[in-house]
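Tokens for chain A. Residues wanted.
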């Protein structure tokens, strides 16, 4: 009986270490900035937040990936939901003439509680 208790206690301790070490705490929001000639002022600023990012999918919670997403989305110059670099972006038109669009981009891990969100707003050039 004593051996079973020790084995069970050891298994529980290993499981707690294994599951506790794979997920990180919530990141502080990051401000990511990139350039685009399609927007007024040529500057696009986005806010990137993430939580429960594991080591396998950490590339999706970086400013480098966020800049790639912002560049590709603003290059299209039309507002429709789009999947870019692992993030699914949904536009919301705030105003027209000139076009002001707010984008909410999310990445949700399929088998993990990981969540990454990128939010940015642009005013498109009408040229």
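Reply:
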């Amino acid at each position: 009986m004593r051996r079973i208790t020790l084995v069970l206690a050891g298994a529980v301790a290993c499981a707690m270490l294994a599951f506790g070490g794979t997920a990180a705490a919530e990141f502080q929001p990051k401000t990511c900035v990139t350039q685009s000639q399609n927007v007024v002022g040529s500057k696009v600023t986005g806010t990137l937040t993430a939580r429960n990012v594991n080591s396998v999918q950490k590339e999706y919670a970086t400013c480098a990936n966020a800049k790639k997403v912002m560049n590709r989305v603003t290059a299209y110059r039309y507002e429709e939901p789009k999947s870019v670099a692992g993030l699914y972006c949904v536009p919301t038109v705030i105003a027209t003439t000139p076009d002001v669009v707010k984008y909410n981009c999310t990445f949700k891990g399929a088998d993990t509680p990981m969540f990454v969100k990128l939010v940015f707003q642009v005013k498109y050039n009408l040229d």
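The two ends are 79 Å apart (CA to CA). The helical segments are 2-20, 63-76.
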